[in-house]
């Protein structure tokens, strides 16, 4: 298996193909579940890529859909095999947002709105340590370090020379003013953001307090887009006990329009960088 196989993306692509075959057959997920004596929720999880798909699952589904071309069956079964491989993040153990990491690893671009904190891909190590410790006070030192290591590893996507992630970040001014880890940590963090914002593939805008109510008032979200046209865009909303992934076209479009409004209401790139640098200087006093 090639080392760059992304199991999360393989599951998504395979699930999309299985859904297409079901729809071509004119069957509902409930009908398929009845034929295979499984739950309807299992069929839904297989199709949305949130569950590992075994080669036996693929064989059984292709049988129900009466797929006669053995080449298609073989291709789908190979995708199922690849989807059960482990991504780099599995080396760190149980990561609660591993599905998101898999998507981010393969994404071509990411647009994110953060109302409270500096987004993970732009965080310094001291800021990340203090943030995780504060957000998860009952977490052990070892688990905090593991999460920090994963966060730093994720940042390789924006430092890649060959295929950097196109990142667009809208930060609420509150993220600049919330003191995480102390004033020294905040100064270094904001200087880091200002420096990264000068890279051609990274755009950072700040949504100032005086904007008032705005479309992102309900909280953080991200939009991931992929180079392969077969991979639909995904809206990711982080939760405390579970995360939400939206892939339906009308949902993605709604959040995309919201993001355009946020970008329009935020300070432009130069004004944003100036504000970030000014707040950083305030922390140095």
From TrEMBL:
Q: Which CDD domains match?
A: HTH_XRE (cd00093)
Q: Pfam families, alphabetically?
A: DUF5753, HTH_31
Q: What protein am I looking at?
A: Helix-turn-helix domain-containing protein
What's an example of a GO molecular-function annotation for this chain? DNA binding
Question: InterPro entries, alphabetically?
Answer: Cro/C1-type_HTH (IPR001387), DUF5753 (IPR043917), Lambda_DNA-bd_dom_sf (IPR010982)
Q: In this protein, which residues make up the domain named HTH cro/C1-type?
A: 18-72
